[in-house]
């Protein structure tokens, strides 16, 4: 005897949580962050959203074992570092469902990822997934090609065919959301249509900023930083820049 999983369960598991453009893109950027990407470029148009990162990428077998394994906890996987990424970032993901965030806003998602001289491409269709009784019986056919460079790696996610009810925020709103909801680090940048997401993207009047060392940062309340969406782990950083803004009530 064994459980069978109906595709409907995806919605109950949380795909429905990512029902805005901002939330869905932020979750896919979190995956780029966890893959140690230095740069994420988002091309955001009326017809599609393309999110490209220069992170670790995946081989075809990573795709099968890590990407397509729903609900996998990467922190418990021996091949990963646990709480930290290879470059020492505090891992954001843990539920093993974030990759499906795009289905909160679009019908079609294409993943193209390359690592170790191998490029894997897979297109997923939300409706097609719903036509099977059991998710596991859905046959996925990735295309695998060779790439010249064995050292280059990265991932590009293309989201297309927006669901009808989905609103498209202005570029600036998206930048502000990403600046607030993803960690700020010197080795990590997100661009939306060529313009960097930075604290300056957050609407409001800048009141001032200060740089704090690890020793003094301890006196700043954890809660207040959490509320602006920063990942707060004093053990991992030696220096912080704290920027204070007076902002109008924020909604995404
Ligand atoms: N942009 C990406 N680059 C490299 N690997 C990725 C990327 N997105 C997802 N993955 C892989 O797929 C796995 C599943 O992603 P996800 O569903 O978001 O779950 P989680 O982040 O909780 O592990 C990740 O743990 C990672 O191994
Ligand atoms: Mg994730």
Describe this structure in words.
The protein has 252 residues and is an alpha+beta fold. It folds into 2 domains: 9-162, Histidine kinase-like ATPase, C-terminal domain (Heat Shock Protein 90), CATH 3.30.565.10; 171-246, no CATH class. The protein contains 7 helices and 10 strands. An 8-stranded mixed β-sheet has the order 5-4-3-6-2-1-7-8. Strands 9-10 form a two-stranded antiparallel sheet. The chain starts with 8 loop residues before the first helix and ends in a 6-residue tail after the last strand. The structure holds adenosine-5'-diphosphate (ADP) and magnesium ion.
Give a quick rundown of the structure:
With 252 residues, this protein is an alpha+beta fold. The protein has 2 domains: 9-162, Heat Shock Protein 90 (2-Layer Sandwich), CATH 3.30.565; 171-246, no CATH class. The chain is built from 7 helices and 10 strands.
What are the key terms here?
252 residues, alpha+beta, Heat Shock Protein 90, eight-stranded mixed beta sheet, 26% strand, binds adenosine-5'-diphosphate, binds magnesium ion
